[in-house]
């Protein structure tokens, strides 16, 4: 018996060449590598990893949406005869969605930051702030008096919690990028990687640079214009800086516009009609039922969304308004859908990430469907390090003459992938995939004559107008309309999808499956946006199955 005990002890503590393998009882420990037996997160050094990570934290303003399979597209009569969203079966990964549309006060916070950190008085920064300003002139109507909204809607506190409008697609994506950096800045401060209130020092001018998430992950010493040493938090050990990594589990994925498939899935909120592993029927609107009016005892007869109810009727009669609004309404004015998302029908339509095409190509993809991929990579400088655009701003002039900043100072320089990344690769062969199988050379019947993209007379599948905008010798913008009679479509790679009905739309457009499009540089008084965020890790927040989905009453 004694000999057997000695054998067990020896088998659990093997010493070979001065290297000790961790004891048997700890072989399944999360702090011991199952590949090598080495300790993880040892004080003596070696591999460091966040083994205590549980799950992704829900970022500010977001609601969790568990992914699954659903029918994307219209299953009702296509009275408009667009035939641009035939039903397809799609699967969506779990993600997060803004509880409401981005409001005026949220966007004003963004504008205030840009104006403080990049003062327009500085010639290099002039167009950063002005390029982010909403187009307040969208309220004007040749035969309508709307100057009150033109002058007040964005900034007056009475409209603070109303959805922001006059935002084009480009501005919406830039807001999402800025929001990502500000949220991650707060996360790092909370976890002790940045000093308390470090986020305010850039806006007050105490430091000369700002925080960029990707710059922090790739070259952390470059953040805050190289002054991050003085902004280290409690994690700093003696004189050694400690930086969070992606493997730390603290950095949030980016805020972004939702894909069209994500938006439609979230708007339908079919979880409320689920029984076991089936959906019972299909919703016509984000709420249950075939009608737009409330059928419950409390509030019976009231409209469930903000939309145009008839010719000259935007909200009913005085004293008995059906939807409580004539233009947009304050967010959360109506009940949420079964996912807890507000205004997924009515109030304002919303930009989504996708480039518009009439066909949803489910032969190529039925998982996280999205058209609009442009694959980029970080630019590497001559010193072998990631290239940071520290003291430069790259601007782009949109087709309507609006100048917007492509990057902000301190961000990483990005460039399109090339042959080094695509050679002998089967899943993609080029950087720009917006026209894949629907607008690229191989999908056109003129493929043998397909000319360079820059040639105006090229025979393309989507031959849209090409208005010119140039800078003359005096530095002024010269605008010239495309007067060609050969243009046959408005569709191109700069046209984006927007979803949902708005205060200007009839009930037909409240169906989540409806889709429309607009050039990404244009803005209106009825299109807003909300942000989304991908979920990393497990599909669900719980392992327990329920017989029926949760319904919002």
TrEMBL record:
The keyword DNA repair does not apply. One of its GO terms (molecular function) is formylglycine-generating oxidase activity. This is Gliding motility lipoprotein GldJ. PANTHER family: FORMYLGLYCINE-GENERATING ENZYME, SULFATASE MODIFYING FACTOR 1, 2. InterPro entries: CTDL_fold, Glid_motil-assoc_lipo_GldJ, Sulfatase_Mod_Factor_Kinase, SUMF_dom, SUMF_sf. Gene3D superfamilies: paralog of FGE (formylglycine-generating enzyme). Residues 59-367 form the Sulfatase-modifying factor enzyme-like domain. Coiled coil: none annotated. Keywords: Lipoprotein. It comes from the Bacteria. Pfam families: FGE-sulfatase (PF03781). The gene is gldJ.
């Amino acid at each position: 018996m004694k000999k057997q005990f000695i054998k067990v002890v020896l088998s659990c503590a093997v010493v070979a060449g001065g290297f000790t393998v961790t004891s048997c009882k700890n072989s399944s420990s999360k702090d011991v590598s199952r590949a090598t037996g080495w300790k993880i997160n040892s004080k003596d050094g070696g591999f460091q990893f966040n083994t205590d990570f549980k799950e992704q934290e829900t970022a500010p303003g977001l609601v969790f949406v568990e992914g699954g399979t659903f029918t994307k597209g219209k299953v009702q009569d296509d009275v408009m005869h667009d035939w641009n969203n035939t039903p397809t079966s799609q699967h969506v990964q779990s993600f997060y969605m803004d509880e409401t549309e981005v409001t005026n006060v949220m966007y004003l916070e963004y504008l205030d930051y840009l104006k403080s950190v990049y003062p327009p008085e500085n010639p290099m920064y002039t167009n950063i702030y002005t390029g982010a300003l909403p187009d307040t002139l969208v309220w004007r109507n040749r035969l309508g008096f709307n100057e009150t909204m033109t002058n007040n809607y964005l900034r007056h506190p009475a409209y603070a919690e109303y959805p922001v409008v006059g935002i084009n697609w480009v501005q919406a994506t830039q807001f999402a990028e800025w929001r990502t950096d500000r949220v991650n800045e707060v996360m790092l401060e909370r976890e002790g990687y940045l000093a308390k209130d470090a986020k305010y020092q850039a806006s007050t001018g105490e430091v000369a640079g700002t925080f960029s998430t990707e710059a922090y992950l790739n070259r952390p010493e470059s953040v805050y214009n190289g002054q991050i040493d003085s902004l280290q938090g409690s994690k700093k050990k003696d004189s050694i800086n400690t930086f969070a990594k992606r493997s730390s589990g603290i950095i949030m994925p980016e805020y972004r516009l939702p894909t069209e498939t994500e938006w439609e899935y979230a708007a339908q909120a079919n979880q409320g009609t689920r029984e076991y592993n089936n959906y019972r029927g299909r919703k016509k609107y984000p709420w249950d039922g075939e009608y737009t009016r409330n059928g419950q005892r409390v509030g019976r007869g009231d409209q469930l969304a903000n939309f145009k109810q008839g010719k000259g009727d935007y909200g009913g009669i005085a004293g008995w308004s059906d939807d409580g609004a004539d233009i947009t309404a304050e967010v959360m004015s109506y009940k949420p859908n079964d996912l807890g998302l507000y205004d997924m029908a009515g109030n304002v339509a919303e930009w989504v990430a996708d480039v518009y095409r009439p066909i949803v190509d489910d032969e190529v993809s039925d998982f996280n469907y999205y058209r609009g991929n442009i694959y980029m990579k970080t630019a590497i400088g001559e010193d072998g390090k990631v290239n940071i655009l520290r003291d430069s701003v790259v601007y782009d002039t949109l087709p309507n003459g609006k100048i917007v900043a492509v990057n902000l100072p301190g961000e990483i320089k990005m460039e399109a992938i090339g042959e080094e990344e695509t050679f002998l690769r089967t899943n993609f062969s080029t950087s720009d995939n917006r026209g894949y199988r629907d607008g690229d050379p191989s999908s056109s019947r003129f493929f043998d004559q397909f000319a360079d993209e820059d040639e105006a007379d090229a025979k393309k599948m989507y031959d849209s107008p090409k208005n010119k905008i140039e800078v003359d010798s005096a530095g002024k913008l010269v605008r010239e309309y495309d007067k060609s009679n050969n243009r046959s479509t408005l569709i191109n790679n700069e046209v984006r999808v927007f979803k949902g009905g708005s205060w200007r739309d009839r009930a037909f457009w409240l169906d989540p499956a409806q889709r429309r499009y607009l050039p990404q540089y244009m803005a209106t008084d009825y299109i807003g946006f909300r942000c989304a965020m991908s979920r990393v890790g497990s599909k669900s927040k719980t392992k327990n199955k329920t017989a029926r989905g949760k319904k919002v009453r």
